[in-house]
Design goal:
Elements (H helix, E strand, L loop, with lengths): L1 H6 L9 E2 L2 E2 L2 H9 L4 H6 L3 H7 L9 H12 L1 H11 L12
Antiparallel strand pairs: 1-2
Length: about 100
C-alpha cells in the first residue's frame, strides 16, 4: 500500500496509527473488501464491526470515524482502481442506490 501511495505521487506517505498502534492497511482493506467495499460498509454501518477486528481500545471513542477516514485517505483510490479493472459492473450507479 505504501508503494501504491508513492505511485499516486504521495512520496511522504506515512502509515496512520489508531489506538496507539500503526494501522495494518492490508488487514483493513481485506476487512472492507469482504464486506462488499467501502460503500457497502458505510451504507450498512459496518465500521464498528471492523473496529472490533482491530482490537482498538474502548477509550478510542471515535474509532469507527477514524478508521473510515484512514480508509478513505489511504485505500479508497486503490479499491476504486481495482474495482474498475476487475469488476466494472460493481461501479455502476444503480449499484449504489443512485
Amino acid at each position: 500500500m505504501v508503494l501504491y501511495q508513492r505511485e499516486l505521487g504521495n512520496d511522504n506517505f506515512k502509515v496512520p496509527s489508531i489506538g496507539g498502534k500503526e494501522l495494518d492497511l492490508c488487514k483493513l482493506y481485506k476487512a472492507v473488501y469482504v464486506r462488499g467495499g467501502s460503500v457497502q460498509v458505510s451504507t450498512r454501518k459496518l465500521w464498528k464491526e471492523i473496529v472490533n477486528e482491530f482490537q482498538i481500545p474502548s477509550s478510542c471513542t471515535s474509532a469507527s470515524f477514524t478508521l473510515r477516514n484512514h480508509y478513505n485517505k489511504c485505500l479508497l483510490a486503490y479499491e476504486t482502481r481495482w474495482m474498475q479493472q476487475n469488476h466494472p459492473e460493481a461501479l455502476r450507479p444503480d449499484k449504489f442506490g443512485g
